[in-house]
Amino acid sequence: MIEILEHGRTFHLKTRHTSRILHVTETGHVMDLYWGSRVEGDAFGYMIKDIKKASYLCGTDGDGAFRLEQYPVLYPGWGNPDLRSPAFSFCYEDGSRITDLRFDGYELRQKKEKLPGLPTLLDSGAEAFRLFLRDSVKQVCLTLEFGIFEKLDAMTQSVRVENKGDQPFTADRLMSACVSLMEDGLQAVTLTGAWGRECTRNSLPLCQGIFQTGSTRGAGGHGQNPFMALTQKGLEERDGQIWAVNLVYSGSFLCEAEVDMHQNTRFMAGIQPEGFSWRLEPGESFYSPEAVLIHSDRGLEEMTHRFHRLYRACLLRSHERRTPPVLLNSWEAAYFDFNKETLLALAKEGASAGAELFVLDDGWFGRRNGADSSLGDWTENRKKLGGSLKELAEEIRGLGMEFGLWFEPEMVSPDSCLYRSHPDWAIQVPGRRPQLARDQLVLDLSRREVQDYIIEAVDRVLSSAPITYVKWDMNRNITDWYSSALGAGCQKELGHRYILGLYRILEKLTEKHRNVLFEGCAGGGGRFDPGILYYMPQIWASDDTDPIERLEIQTGTAMVYPAVSMGCHVSASPNHMTGRLSPLSVRGVTAMEGNLGYELDLTGLAQEEKEEIRRQIHFYKEIRSIIQEGDLYRLRSAGNERAWMYVTENREQAVVSYVRILSRPNTVPGRLRLYGLDPLFTYQVQDQESGTALLRTGSSLMHIGLALPKGTGDFYGTQYTLVRSWNLPCTHLCG
Ligand code: GLA
Questions:
Q1: CB of 149 closer than 8 Å to CB of 129
Q2: Looking at residues 361-387, what average pLDDT do you find?
Q3: Are 451 and 477 in contact (CB under 8 A)?
């Protein structure tokens, strides 16, 4: 909901529990007065008068009654005259770099619209508020667009730049959102890591200066996620204010928090300015990606719930089949070493265990028997497959499973027909030897003909066989930035043009193949962001399938992204990456934190292990809607014991998972307090390990807690299901 106050000078953007208040000063500057818990009132302009100038030197000067630097400017430009970190910076033909934006009107829109060429959060109930700003000297116009998702307690922000003057200029920096908080003493929470260790949670107290998390890799990368939260209390689960931003973008990004000398914190997110610029000719426009803004006054838990509900409702676009299938993937089972017989033998085991989809990973095309060839040559290797893909897919479907396929369409191997015929399609600087990574180069997706080649090649394969799933991989970052199709003055546009090209490809393919479920992957979670999720509603969270490692990775990933978007697999023991031995039970418990899959050679397992997998899949199918649609409560997310639970929105059902990492002698298992239940009702609690059932009230489960089992050995995991019982008066049953 949007309220226009103070004769059109104050704008109150409201969701159910949050408010953002913008205000136009007499000088025409727009201020970011407030973002936080919902407030009521019919005037807020007094906040500007309440700001006490830090120094007597800041008297009246120029055309304003104040120095901008001490005020919460909504969208500050470089050097005018606010000298803190700017939200944008433009360079004009005459070499000047000053842009002075003043209020130029506003517009309310009942319906939020899709951003041209960019993934956008959409919902029939979302409204949009547009604020127009203009520089009257250069005739540059900015539209700040705010999306308001009232019921979901979320907002979005993006920027459109229009060159209405008669000279070109370049945008060197253009943040999607910039927020001014009139306080300091906050902490920054980020998700960082590396390949095999994605999305580890960090919390760092901010002090005067600039703190950034960002990437210049052409993707978010494994080491940082386009997310940052400012918190009053660090990683506090259920307490304190949180202001969080997540960028709907899959390229190089920047999230930045600046604490200034006057106890304010400026917080922004957008395309990474390093290596970026965009030239706008007269009449041209540029759209920034959008940023999602979530505020919570009840700690990280509420923030997570708001992100998850928003993304489930407005980002993960409806796929023909809403429920992601339990899949069996060939990668860790066989790597490149397979033939038709071994694939069918694996698939047969998968089908009898209850898997719903068989995924043929890398190695099915060109002459690909290792990582060093054939990317770009998307033609089936009939010799290796013992026939066509269609025949293989049909045989697998005959076993009762769907068939899915791996691609890495953004890449090219120097040893490929594609590279031999189009070396200039690879990103590399003429005359220099490019850096190979995993023996491959990145295709120049800024070029239309490259985009069309990929669309055509993937479409041809998908149309040739009954394929209902695609794993879309991207195994290296971009180096040697140069496009032979862009002029010298536009080379810094390559990164963003690449991403626009990728989005165009994904738009076309997902539109045409609406029955195909696309799963994103970038050597695991190297490109886990809302931009990818818009097209591909699930992402492979990490190449690290070790269940103990996954505890950290999944806890971090699920802080922002819902369970239904996380691919999580049970793999072999010892684990191929860490060498750690772990019981099948704990591998099952951790993989059930998201979309369950299997990625190991089932044919080599003992009969009891096959039985256990069958039981896991059967159990998962019974509870998956709770995991995929429920609210996540982190019960213990650090230390030797980990526990989490999912609860359906109506609080009727829940699943609790518990993992104890190392066994410790002479200790007594404690109790686990649950959350999110209905205190006044009785729940039937089913212990999956012992098969026993208990009846307990929601209030006792939440305050007294569930007695934990003793368990044996290292890496112990178990689960409980809870069903709310309507008929039984709880007073008789709590024993
Ligand atoms: C990447 C992916 C893996 C697998 C391999 C295949 O590393 O993350 O899951 O698909 O590529 O080469």
A1: no
A2: 98
A3: no
